[in-house]
Write a structure and sequence with these properties.
- It is built from 1 helix and 23 strands.
- By secondary structure, it is mainly β.
- The protein has 2 domains: 158 residues; 88 residues, no CATH class.
- Strand 3 and strand 4 form a beta hairpin.
- It starts with a helix and ends in a 28-residue tail after the last strand.
């Protein structure tokens, strides 16, 4: 074969290879995606492309490389985090599948907050009347409320929820859980009633830490455990109503604890002011085989007095 002909053949072959490579490259463009809806059921939208794989059962896939408008450009795709700054009084909904950080830092900054389709929510209501009711449902929520009436009621079902309320003046509304665990941290600050009622309506555990005069309202559990720590002023905790779970109340100063009712609890322990030995005015202890078996000489409920006092 002559050199000229050979060169033509080689050139043609190289050209065909280049052409083939370009054709393959163009084919992959068909796998580009903006949202999960752009991909087939056996692929996941990741970094702008549909790659092989399926979302975990029950998971909500966030849109790859698309920052929802409500996040204002503040998206961390690696962490799946969306930061929302609430400036007005409008309601806020965390986009499905995102871990939302919601900051409401001005008086009356946010309306109702809905995190029912989020992956999680961290909510900061740091001014008077900053947030209205907060709905978390099955998603974990951590809520911080500072200032008078900073948060409305907080509702969870199967998720774990915590509320940290300071500044007094009803900084938090009621915190309600079902089978999830609820934790309430209340500091009276310049006023009282920092926290509203705490309720675990089915199997969830309720924990309340109350510091300051009338910092906490009433606490009620069903079959979960109830734990309260009260101090820093009179009536720091409200009435404690236990269901069938374990019950514990620690009263660190004077009349810090309200009435304690744990007659149906599987165990109940009440620790009174160590200096004054001042216990709640009314305590009902679980005495299965007699009226005073599980009550010590100071009339405190004590699960260590007899084996039948601890049925948990």
């Amino acid at each position: 074969m002559k050199p000229v002909v050979l060169g033509v053949v080689i050139g043609a072959s190289i050209g065909a290879s280049v052409l083939w490579a370009c054709t393959v490259h163009r084919a992959t463009e068909g796998y580009r995606c903006a949202t999960q809806a752009d991909c087939a059921s056996d692929r996941v939208c990741t970094q702008g492309y549909c790659v092989l794989g399926t979302p975990p059962d029950g998971a909500v896939m966030i849109d790859a490389a698309v920052c929802p408008a409500i996040c204002g450009g503040q998206c961390d795709f690696a962490a799946g985090r969306c930061t929302i700054t609430g400036m007005g009084t409008g309601n806020i909904v965390c986009p499905p599948g995102w871990n939302c950080v919601i900051n409401c830092g001005a008086a009356g900054a946010c309306g109702a907050i809905n995190c029912t389709n989020a992956a999680s929510c961290d909510i900061n209501c740091t001014a008077d009347n900053a947030c209205l009711n907060i709905q978390c449902s099955t998603k974990p929520c951590d809520v911080t409320c500072t200032g008078a009436h900073a948060c409305g009621s907080i509702t969870c079902t199967t998720a774990n929820c915590s509320a940290t309320c300071s500044g007094g003046g009803s900084a938090c509304g009621a915190l309600s859980c079902s089978s999830g665990n609820c934790t309430q941290n209340c500091t009276g600050g310049y006023g009282s009633a920092a926290c509203g009622n705490l309720t675990c309506s089915t199997s969830g555990n309720c924990t309340a830490n109350c510091m300051g005069s009338a910092a906490c309202s009433n606490i009620q559990c069903a079959s979960g455990d109830c734990t309260t720590t009260c101090g820093g002023g009179s009536a720091a905790c409200g009435t404690l109503n236990c269901g069938t779970g374990a019950c514990s109340a620690t009263c660190n100063s004077g009349s810090a604890c309200g009435n304690v009712s744990c007659a149906n609890a599987c165990k109940c322990d009440v620790t009174c002011d160590p200096a004054l030995n001042q216990c709640p005015a009314v305590m009902t202890c679980p005495d299965p085989n007699g009226p005073t078996i599980c009550t010590d000489s100071m009339m405190r409920c004590d699960s260590s007095l007899a084996s039948q006092c601890n049925q948990c």
